Amino acid sequence: MTGSAVPERIRQAVAALDVRADDRLLEIGCGGGVAVGLVCALLTTGTITAVDRSATATARAARRNAGPVGDGRATIVTAAFTEPGLSAAGLAGRRFDKIFAIDVNLFWTGPARAELALAAHLLAPGGALHAFYEPPGGRLDGRLEERLDELTAKVTGTFEAGGFTAEVLRLPAPVVGIVGRP
């Protein structure tokens, strides 16, 4: 993949994760696996597990990241981010230092209580949940700051209602990041 093929929001999100060489990461909604490739370049003994409910997306992600999948740094799984989905995929009992999602509606469209409880269970002590968003249409209609503020408020409220603390990361616009800790 060429450098120009990586969307800026994904570059910013991975940079904000501050990936350590030995981190154990879980990506929710990996899509075609672009972030997986960026994360794998930063890992030596660490690993990333990427889940998406779309078999088409995970097949694309596995092809894109064939090297890291082959050497064990990456695992790509077709599963919903639910307890039954992850258990069926063989991920029950795993612990992660960082869980992240990029442009996944889950945390801003509803209460996500079950998913936040699952994330809290999957996080290793001291671990964190990271959610990154690029609001749709903001630059086109001139409402970027308003949409960033709206997303930030919704995700922060969802995290806090789910028992997480929430810290807002100020990333270069148009991306916002929220870090939650149980």
Automatic annotation (TrEMBL):
List residues of the Methyltransferase type domain.
26-129
Q: Which GO terms describe its biological process?
A: methylation
Entry's InterPro entries? Methyltransf_12 (IPR013217), SAM-dependent_MTases_sf (IPR029063)
Which residues are the signal sequence here? none
Q: Does the keyword Transcription regulation apply?
A: no
Q: Which domain of life is it from?
A: Bacteria
Provide this UniProt record's keywords sorted from A to Z. Answer: Methyltransferase, Transferase
Q: Which GO terms describe its molecular function?
A: methyltransferase activity
Gene3D superfamilies, per the entry? Vaccinia Virus protein VP39
* Record's keyword annotation contains Lyase: no
Report what the protein is called: TPR repeat methyltransferase
Instruction: List the source organism.
Output: Streptomyces umbrinus
What taxonomic lineage is listed for the species of origin?
A: Bacteria, Bacillati, Actinomycetota, Actinomycetes, Kitasatosporales
